[in-house]
Each structure stands twice: as C-alpha cells, then as structure tokens.
C-alpha cells in the first residue's frame, strides 16, 4: 500500500516532469537558434572578407598596366636604338617584376620587398633617362621587415615620372624616405619640378590620380579602425606624397 510520503513524491514528479520537459525543449530551441545565429554571422563575416579581398585584388590590379606599358615603351625604344645590352637588361628586369608579381599575392609586404620591387621599375627608368635621373633612398634599417601595403612605393614613384619627369626637361631628382614616428610609419616620395614651372603660379591643389585614390581606398580596407593618412603637397621646388599608417610586424 502506498504511503502518504511516496504519494506526495509521485505527485510532485508528475507535476514537475512536464515543466522540466518544457524547460529542456525551450533550452534546446534557444541553443539551436543561437547556433544558427552564429553560423549566419560566420557566413556573413566570410562573405564580407571575401568581398574585401576581391575589392583589394581589383584595386591592386589597376596599378599594374602603368608599369607594364611604360616598360614596353622603354624596350621598344631600346630596340629601335639598337642598344642590345640595355635591351637585354630591361627584359631581365621585366622578368623579375613578373616573377615578383605572380609569386606574391599578399595585401601587405615588407618594406624591403616593396623597395626591391620598386627598384625593378627604377632600373628600367634609369635606362630611359640616363644621367638625367638622380635617385636617393633613406630607410631606417630597423624598418626593413615592417609591413607596407603592396605596390604603394612603386605607385608613388611612378606618379613622379608620369606627372613630373616625363613632362619637364632638366635633371629628374627623386627622393624616397621611410621613417617611424611613435606608433606610425611615414613614407615620403618627393620629385623636383622642371625649370619652367618655377616661373608659373603654384597650383592650389592638383587632382589626385587613380594611383593615389587607389592607395587611399586600400588603406581604408586594410586598416578600417586605425588612423591612416595620405596626401599630396605641391611646392615650388617639387611635389611630395606622404603616407602614414600603423607599424605592423611581419608574422613569423
């Protein structure tokens, strides 16, 4: 015969069991919804990252034709002038450029690698401009392994030729300066102006070309929450492009 204590426990179990079952089902439902939400967030993040990667690749590719077509023009000129040794040297340099291009698909590269890549461009321009071209590079040694947006230096240097040296006569002076300040890296690329520019009024502002706008957008993609800056300064003696971005070490 069932005593009162056993009956009370039995009744309690009968009352609590549906409640426990309901709470369990509710917990499982909430847990499942949370898992679905996390999956959706992960998918959305992956899609956003893929979109940014695709945008960056498109922006990077916009830079390449300038160097390629300039190089072909130099090679064509050397061939017409029958400068065989210089022609061979320019083709070898172009080969090195493409080797770097198609073995490096990173959005960031070291300053050392970026300078090496830029020097491929400058080696060809030296053949083109001869003794007229004077180049100076100042880089703090400890910065060689710091990271920089790929093709940034080459873009700024190419800008000097496209908007400066190719338009003006006389010596072509180019200065590349990379230094650090506090937690930032600073890149400055300066080029002089032709003599006839000095007699003219200094323009208040020159519209930035595709290359500089390209780098600006890439900086915003690479450092969405960091302070970055890129601007162009016109002076009577020349043009200066300055870029500031956070110091970042190469991962090992």
Task: Write a short abstract of this structure.
By secondary structure, the chain is of the alpha+beta class. 58% of the residues lie in helices and 19% in strands. The chain has 6 helices and 7 strands, in the order H-H-E-H-E-E-H-E-E-H-H-E-E.
Task: Please characterize this protein's 3D structure.
With 252 residues, the chain is an alpha+beta fold. It has one domain (31-246): 2-Layer Sandwich (Heat Shock Protein 90), CATH 3.30.565. The protein contains six helices and seven strands; from the N terminus they run ααβαββαββααββ. The chain has helices spanning 4-80, 84-103, 111-129, 152-165, 195-198, 210-222, and strands spanning 108-110, 133-139, 147-149, 172-181, 184-192, 229-234, 238-246. The strands form two sheets. The chain has a five-stranded mixed sheet with strand order 2-4-5-7-6, with helices on one face. β6 and β7 form a beta hairpin. The longest helix is centred in the N-terminal third of the chain and has 77 residues, at 4-80. The protein is elongated, with a radius of gyration of 30 Å. The termini are far apart.
